Amino acid sequence: MALPINIMDLLERRVVEGARIEYKKDWNPERVLHTICAFANDIDNWGGGYVVLGIDEENGRPKIPVSGLNVDSIDRTCKELVRICNLIEPRYIPVVEHAVYRDADILVIWVPGGDARPYKCPAKLVADRTKSEKAHYIRKASATMRANPSEEKELFQLSETLPFDDRANNNAVLQDLKPNLISDYLYGIESELFETSVDVSLTDLAYNLRLARGPPECVRPVNAGLMFFNDRPDNFFRYARIEVVDKPDPTGTGMTEKVFAGPLDRQLKDSLNYIKNYIITEKVVKIQGRPEAARFFNYPYSAVEEALSNAVYHKSYQIPEPITVTITPEMMEITSIPGPDRSISADDIKKRRMVSKFNRNRRIGDFLKELKLVEGRNTGVPLMVRAMQANGSELPVFDTDEDRTYFTAILPVHAGFIKNHDADGPLENKKRVRRTAEEVDRLLSDLLKKEGSLSMREISQKMGYSATTKGLIGAVGRMIDGGKAEYLYPDRVNSPNQKIRLRRE
């Protein structure tokens, strides 16, 4: 059986996080067995991992040149691998492939998260199996370790709930998986399975990719398979779609709505292309004393891409609600249901520090990563923040309720796109200071005259706002456009360290 991923993508870590790959220069049965057991237990729902034999590790990456394995030993190693894996309880046999990497022979062992966890295996490989204690092993970061009592308890709790996207769907049949979509996917990720995908049966192909479950007489596709390899997954998961609403006026005048359905990867790509072509706008501002103009976007595309991809990744497809993208003159809101798990505190959300212990959709995540539609684990929010800063925009805001029934990523529009707004529309849901636009203009001018140069955050604080408001952003924009104020660093307009001061004559 071939791997469902291109070898170069795997080993160069373009798709799979380093914590999910274990490199071993030589064949060490005991250590390999413990790592296979740990990946199969998949305590953090990462989707398992890979053990690569024949490559030494250097700072978490393949050491070059690659030592490789003796080609004459590979068949013997594969047989030994099956023998030791039979010692795992319940029985677990991973997928093994002989590959060539940088002219060296290697073995790649694919260990998907197991269905029958928790798994345990001998702590020591001894001749008399009755004298070998068996233990549960888990992965923490990039290390394999023996589970302590509390971690063993957690493994048993996890065994009671198989993630929804990895469950068999009894309302579908295997033929609901479309071979052409599977082949397109394999071609897109440059998997060696693509070459044989047209020649094998749908059943074999589905089993090879872990897209089906059940005995031969009752094979059923898993939910993630239907989400990616059926033309209308919303027939099985109501409202599994993305709705983009452009609302230029609060009354709804001129509102447009687009609905994107189909396989998850297709609806994500199509909705992002629509936003990129019809919503995102670039603005060019000529700055006095500078030959080149300042350029910025109402919303940086990379921030939108991260926010929407994360929504597709983390939404619950058991709840019949769509992902919604709402664009107003002040902001873009991307909402999915439900909210983050409670391992992320309210303070973490406020501080944009969201690292989840659990993964709601491990198979969906694997597919999106292999298609390069999402990055590695817990990188979405930092990438969003950096993209907004680089564009000179206010930082994103994340919102949920006490019961975690929803999650909204709010991307404020760049200040350069706000004109003549009143002062009482904050970008964060906090206590407001109500002032007219004329009052804000006057107070801002007096403040800059007194203090010199200030950042937007400093201006907000000194004027008594608990958050940057639309009216304040508009006032700064009017002063700059009217020649009354200027940037402190005119050659770095989008710098996160940018400050504003009164224009010097």
Number of helices: 16
Give the termini separation: 74 Å
User: The biggest beta sheet, please?
Assistant: 6 strands, mixed
Rg over CA atoms, rounded to whole Å, is 27 Å
* CATH T-level fold name of the largest domain: Heat Shock Protein 90
Principal-axes geometry comes out as: elongated
Label the structural class.
alpha+beta
Instruction: Tell me the total number of β-strands.
Output: 21
- Percent of residues in helices: 25-40%
Number of domains: 4
Assembly state here? single chain
Report the mean per-residue pLDDT as an integer. Answer: 85
Structure characterization notes:
The protein folds into four domains: 154 residues, Methyltransferase, Cobalt-precorrin-4 Transmethylase, Domain 2 (2-Layer Sandwich), CATH 3.30.950; 57 residues, no CATH class; 175 residues, Heat Shock Protein 90 (2-Layer Sandwich); 85 residues, Arc Repressor Mutant, subunit A (Orthogonal Bundle), CATH 1.10.10. Helix content is 31%, strand content 18%. The protein contains 16 helices and 21 strands. The strands form seven sheets. Strands 13-12-16-17-19-18 form a six-stranded mixed β-sheet, covered by helices on one side. Strand 18 and strand 19 form a beta hairpin. The protein starts with 6 loop residues before the first helix and ends with a strand.
